[in-house]
Request: fold
Amino acid sequence: MAAIDDIVEEALRSQNERRGGVRPRLKNYLDMLASTGKTEGELKACAKAYLKEFRKPDSRYSGC
Reply:
């Protein structure tokens, strides 16, 4: 399995994400998912989904 850092970098590159604040948040999220036994493919899919929601959050889940 690829290292979490590699998955984070790949996801950020594929989404052209340049904001530095998302990197540690994404890494922590993927570390948590990896600890549950997610596969590399699942982690990559979750990384893409996380970045999509980070860029354009779904207002139905705003917590308000």
